[in-house]
Amino acid sequence: MIESRKNICLFCSLGCGLIVDVEREEAVNLEYDTECPANRGRLCSKGNYILELINHPLRLNVPKKDGKPLRWDEASAEIAGAVHAARDKKAAAVVLSGDASCEDVGLAVEFAVNCMANDKVAISLPTDDDKVVAALAGTSGGIMQATPDDVESSVCTIAVGDPFERCPVLAGRMLAARNAARANSLNVVSENSNTTSRFATTHLKGSERQNMLALVAAVAKTGGGKDGWQKSLVEGIDASPDAQRLAKRFLESEKSVVVVSTGDPVVAQLANALLKAAGDNKLLFALHDYGNARSITEIFAGGASTKDVIESAGRGEIDVLIILGADLVASYPDLDVGGALSKVKTVVAGAPFANKTTALAGMVLPTALWLETDGTFNGQARSAVVEPPGGAISYGNVLGAVSSAMDVELRAPSPTKALAEEAIDRNKAVAIASAAREEGAKPPVQSTAIRFADGSLTDRVCWMKMLEKVH
Amino acid sequence: MKKLFVDLDLCIGCQAHSVACNRVNHNVLTMQSTDVAEDAKLPVVCRHCESPACVTACPNGSMERGEDGVVRRSMATCTGCMSCTLACPFGVLTRGMRLARHSASKCNLCAPRVERGLEPACVATCPTGALQFREVEEVYEREPIVLGAHTIGHNPYIRRA
């Protein structure tokens, strides 16, 4: 009896739907979910590897200490002892990867407060997604977020960076928009020529920051904007003729979408400023490498940054470091992660696959993928498609096991309900907005389903290796 | 009959088709990508020719063109001599392709999927819709430019005007 179970791909923030066929609790086939509004069944090469990811023969399935297998209760007792010893010095820290569910992040915060007596919880988003999300959140008041369907019906699309490379499925939507009518255009702002610029109507080549600033200036001067605040801000900035033409087209088009695919928070803020300057009916689509980044950063404020944790480990201030999912060595090549970890007494690394960080860890724990975890991803509650292999458990369960070994009861916060309600509200907002748009009325301010869903750099590296294997 | 076509104006060279093909054919890649230029990786699609050179070249009779027009390879009789790869004028069957049980890998237009009413995996996955599974006559009628349409192999590359 084959059962089809739906889930999403977390390899980028589009959150493409997919179907995993499960037979006797084993994932046997991947199918394309044509009903998912984000991708309508299309998957890029990353998404096609989901099945291999689940059934990979190199998945970790036994906890190990210094290469020797041990039982989960022994492992959690040992970690609990180390965390307890470090508690008074406040010398313990947890780093979670970007594919953690919102519940697991909430649990990690609880764990930090109750078991470690500090707030050293960090989310590893090495491509600066957290900064971009923060930059967009900080200034996004009143800006409408586009859905993938909006991108497809855009008349004038401005792509910042290289969204085609990052998200081929969105590329399909953008190309469909460009090809829908002769007047439609796809305009690219990027440092160099790239995959997206090959398909561009206009390409503003050179510094993304300068080009975006020029666009903001041109839009503000051409007369967009409700309050005119921009005009004083961008005074003295000269826009190139290309930027002026693009700004004019952007303002005059019936529907314009800015697709932001960047790791630079300044560029993200400039994109925001551009939309604010342009006024109504201009939409923003932000694409991140970490799909769950936005959901996580929404519920998780404060704490430490991963760089802080690595640096304080390097100064010898951390005795116990629990790394769940993140491959710090591969993700932060600029930092001396190896040197920092060697100064930590107990390094615990949990991951679905062996990686450069687990190679340096004293204790290695097998953890579940997001496909094997119930939880809130990308603003929606998802249930696991299969059980994790062998002894692998979710990040939250790892922390739960350690806390119960310490006789501390964690009251798991349940963002599922809150987020589910919010998602319902968002859907309502979208429905109201689209109804209003049809009637020609001014749409209400909304924050809608940008689908944020993605894996960690570790998974991407794994995917790229697999791709190399194929070719 | 239905064949695979590539819309050159939609292909971004993401190579998702290769991964999907590899997956549904149990790690036997039947569809490669070519480097036309440094930044263009087009799918190399089997034309399922009307008079296929690979069928003529096969010494064991394991390549055959069925009544439905699909050129298939029989796993049982293929010895992996690679005569078909030398014969294929389009470079679809190549030596570089991985051998499956000592036999050359061959696109069969995802027959098991098509029988279930699904599209071939490469078409279903193609993120931009560049790969299309369409009736040949319909394509020749409706598409403004089909590159090499009247060659023996029915070139699958189509362009907008």
General description of the model:
The complex is a heterodimer of chains A (471) and B (161). Chain A has 471 residues and is an alpha/beta fold. Chain A contains 20 helices and 18 strands. Chain A has helices at residues 50-54, 72-87, 102-116, 129-139, 148-152, 163-166, 168-180, 195-198, 208-222, 229-233, 241-252, 265-278, 293-299, 306-314, 328-331, 337-342, 356-360, 395-405, 415-439, 457-470; strands at 2-8, 17-23, 26-32, 64-65, 68-69, 92-97, 121-124, 144-145, 156-161, 185-190, 202-205, 256-261, 282-286, 320-324, 346-351, 363-366, 375-377, 380-382. In chain A, strand 12, helix 12 and strand 13 (282-286) form a beta-alpha-beta unit. In chain A, helix 4 runs parallel beside helix 12. Chain B is of the alpha+beta class. Chain B has a single domain (2-159), classed as 2-Layer Sandwich (Alpha-Beta Plaits), CATH 3.30.70. Chain B is 22% helix and 20% strand. In chain B, strands 6-1-8-7 form a four-stranded mixed β-sheet. Chain B has a two-stranded antiparallel sheet with strand order 2-3. In chain B, a hairpin with a 2-residue loop joins strand 2 (32-37) and strand 3 (40-44). Chain B is globular, with a radius of gyration of 15 Å. Chain B starts with a strand and ends with a strand. Chain A binds chain B through residues 30, 32, 39, 41-45, 47-49, 51-52, 164, 168-169, 171-172, 175-176, 179, 195, 198-199, 467, 470-471, and chain B through 9-10, 12-16, 18-20, 22-23, 29, 33, 39, 124-129, 160.
